[in-house]
């Protein structure tokens, strides 16, 4: 059966300690997303090297879900799951904005269908 993928692409605020972010990912981020039974698999990646060309983002998450329409949940992302929505708001405050400089990170979300065969 073809899988449904949610791709999140983003950058962290300038000056972020990557070791601190990786620890946060392991201990907080994974727990928040993986507690939802409709999320079949969730993993967080950082680009370590560009080999040909360069993406606009350095970080991305791959999330396999059971249904894209349900994932959007009446205009709310993450199935409207309050645990994930609260976590996402806290994540944005901590990692995707810098009040001192006014920097705001962009998080893109794309849905993809596996070409299965």
TrEMBL record:
Gene3D superfamilies registered for this protein in UniProt: 3.30.70.100
Top-level taxon of the source organism: Bacteria
Name of this chain's protein: Uncharacterized protein
Organism field: Nonomuraea cavernae
Lineage, top ranks: Bacteria, Bacillati, Actinomycetota, Actinomycetes, Streptosporangiales
